Write a sequence for this structure.
């Protein structure tokens, strides 16, 4: 799986940079795509519990990985950046991992969906 490869790269001394931690905008408050409603509701529940927005939860999840060296937020405005920085306020633990595990998307599926987004 992709996490295993990233952990192996990190263990081998390579830096691991995560470029699309908010899934090219899909894991942000601006994404109101009905096809993503169920996933968004789950993310929103965690975000509400943590007092942040869903982009902060997504970024916190990546930052919580021991193999992650650098995370690019992709913020396009000061408001986006301020929201993204709230990732450091999230108290990440194994229970959040468990709750959000079903949101993991295979790389092939991710890139196919990304290619179909209107803004790409």
């Amino acid at each position: 799986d992709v996490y295993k490869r990233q952990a192996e790269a990190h263990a081998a001394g390579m830096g691991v940079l995560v470029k699309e931690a908010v899934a090219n905008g899909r894991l942000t408050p601006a994404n109101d795509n009905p096809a993503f409603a169920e996933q968004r509701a789950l993310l929103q529940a965690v975000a509400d519990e943590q007092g942040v927005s869903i982009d902060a939860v997504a970024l916190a999840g990546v930052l919580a990985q021991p193999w992650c060296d650098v995370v690019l937020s992709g913020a396009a405005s000061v408001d986006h950046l301020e929201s993204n920085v709230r990732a450091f306020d999230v108290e990440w633990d194994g229970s959040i991992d468990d709750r959000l595990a079903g949101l993991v998307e295979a790389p092939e599926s991710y890139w196919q969906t990304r290619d179909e987004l209107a803004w790409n």
Summary: DSSP finds six helices and two strands in the chain.
